[in-house]
Amino acid sequence: MAAKLRAPGFYRAGWMMALGVAFAFFLTWVIRASTGHSTFRHYISGEAITTVSILAVPLLFLVGIGGFDYWFYWAMGRPTRPEDHSGHGARTWKDYFRINTDHKVIGIQYTVTSFFFLLVGGLIAMLMRAELAQPGAQFVDANTFNGLFSVHASLLIFLFVIPVFAGLANFVLPLMIGAPDMAFPRLNALSYWLLPVAGALMLGSFFAPGGAFADGWTAYAPLSTNAPIGQDFFSVGVQFAGASSIMTALNFLVTIITMRAPGMSFFRMPLLVWANFATSLLVVIATPFIAASQFFVLLDRGLGFNFFKAGNGGDVLMYQHVFWFYSHPAVYIMMLPGFGIISEIIAVKSRKPIFGYRMMAFSLLAIVVLGFTVWAHHMFTSGMAAWIRIPMAITTAIIAVPTGIKVFSWLATLWRGVLRLDTPMLFALGFLTTFTLGGISGVMLAMVPFDIHVSSSYFIVAHIHYVLFGGSLMTIFGGVYYWFPKMTGRMFDERLGKMHFWSTFVLFNLTFGPMHILGLQGMPRRVADYASRFADMNLFISIASFGLGLSTLIFLYNIVTSWRGGPVSVANPWRGMTLEWQVSSPPPIFNFDRVPTVVGGPYEYGVPGAVHGIFAPTPAAAGVGSGLARAPSE
Q1: Distance between CA 220 and CA 317 in Å, rounded?
Q2: 397 with 308: CB under 8 angstroms?
Q3: Which DSSP letter does residue 597 get?
Q4: Distance CA 473, CA 427 (A)
Q5: Rounded distance, CA 214 to CA 124, Å?
Q6: Which of 18, 82, 113, 482 is the Cys-Cys partner for 424 at CB 3.0 to 4.6 Å?
Q7: Where are the domains of the chain?
Q8: In the predicted model, what is the mean pLDDT of the chain?
Q9: What are the tens digits of pLDDT across the range 413-425?
Q10: What is the largest CA-CA distance in the chain?
Q11: How far apart are CA 299 and CA 306, in angstroms?
């Protein structure tokens, strides 16, 4: 037992977390003893102990599981330890519950953990819709309802959409560029373990005195600076989630720039790689701004600073400018990886090269630049200087152009293609439909008079869900189905996959489509009660939303049962040209028996004599086994 308590893992993490709580008590006692002044009494209150604990306990948990062991060893000047790869790869299910440096294991850890938070956030949404099924109070009071929608949005943005894209890319991106792993495997492992810490903090706010943070995922000041202690759980949780994103983005950038296989120039990279390259640029540039906004809030709350206290010279609007300078680019952080996934699926399932490949790549980079020019369109009703509205409206309309380029390129790729309408392709087509509808309402919101009219209404709720559910989640489902054989070595049940798509697509539109009408009729968002004239449509929406929630159970059942006992997959069931399909399913522990040499583009379907890559001939040429094979030309 003593050895277990010393070794990195959950045993050591347990007693170190207890040490963190003890440190919080000790620190507050020291402050009290050293000051002896009554004005410092609030520093030794339960709130002070909780504040120190939510900073110390997560950090000591990460130390306990071994997230920093190698770096501590190096910092102490100890002799360099040879890498024995004992922390690399998964041999049993237990290997998924420890620090692991294999990008494929980390990708699965990311993906499964993110779907856990999707389920939790979805259950919170079901409780909200149960409350909204009829006017008046049904199950929760108004303040609890505010906490529910705040945690719902925060979980699904920071703990699902952003990290699940990182998980899928973690698995397939090194394979796609012919790399044996990510550039910084230990940093990659640490970046994953920051996520469950952030999620635990956000969910833990429900148990804080005064309840969960209840000022929305935007945490606008001065609400956030005067809220109960639950607000600190959000502010600290966002720091951990943001640090995870930055670590992952830096890892992706270095991996893409320095570890591509011989012959893989930038314009031979698959569009998923381009999409993650552009997303990583956004993350590295933008994420420090939301970290700054939450540091300001913590300093206002904990140390009496006056960044956002107008009575003491603070500027409340500054918070919104700093927050949205991150959070509008964050919309594209939640979309660009999905664009890459859809490009992979459509090219393979239509057996055609992506139309306008280079323009697709340049449009991704154009969104990176333009994404930083539109943040204030979220503030048209905030009271900021009126003249800013006009340039922000113009740039908001302009940023639709590179997105429109992608939509037309996908449609041109589908035109006269040999379409295979299986589950991944259905989700790709569903994405094209729902995301385009969300984009149209987004252009409407760029118009200042219309935006002012609907700014606080359910029209905004409909828009963001058409973009993030109808857009991001459709691509995520499509990507999971598409790479499921590669990740698990098993095939999923196609019949259940199609059932999942159609139930999701229909019930999604029945749930969020009517919200546009409610918003135009004047129903406010973020309310637990509403006028009786909105009752019938809200009841219809609630019934549809419960059906939408149940449709996710089809997905879970299909994935779990197929992973455990589905038909064994061949190496390349979709006959894809990109490198990840040229190795066994699942791939070898270091991806490639020999480094591949790339001699052609990733989407040369139907191009006479096209060859994608040259490899050492192995049994995988027949579609089974491990190793590498020459990609087929058609």
Answers
A1: 9
A2: no
A3: E
A4: 9
A5: 14
A6: 482
A7: 2-75, 100-334, 352-569, 581-634
A8: 89
A9: 999 999 999 999 9
A10: 84
A11: 8
Supply the DSSP string of 423-435, one letter for each residue: HHHHHHHHHHHHH
26 by Cβ neighbours in 10 Å (0-12 / 13-18 / 19+) ranks as exposed
Per-residue pLDDT at 6 exceeds 90: no
**C-alpha–C-alpha distance, residues 222 and 424, integer Å:** 45
Amino acid letter, 31: I
Pick the CATH number of 352-569 from 3.10.20.310, 1.20.210.10, 3.30.70.890, 3.15.10.40: 1.20.210.10
Tell me which residue has tokens 């199609």: 498
Confidence of residue 72 (pLDDT cuts 50, 70, 90): confident
Whole-angstrom distance, CA of residue 241 vs CA of residue 326 = 14
3-class DSSP state of 598: strand
How far is 394 from 7, CA to CA, in rounded Å? 58
Candidates 1.10.1740.10, 1.20.210.10, 1.10.340.30, 3.30.390.50; CATH matching 100-334:
1.20.210.10
Integer Cα distance of 492 and 590 in angstroms = 25
Q: Which residues pair with 613 in a beta bridge?
A: 598
| 100-334 and 352-569, same CATH topology | yes
Q: How many helices (H) and strands (E) does the chain have?
A: 22, 2
Q: Is 453 helix (H, G, I), strand (E, B) or coil?
A: helix
Whole-structure pTM value: 0.92
The alpha-helical segments, DSSP class H, found in 155-229 are 162-176, 185-204, 223-226
With contact defined as beta carbons under 8 Å apart, do 492 and 499 qualify? no
Q: Are 519 and 466 in contact (CB under 8 A)?
A: no
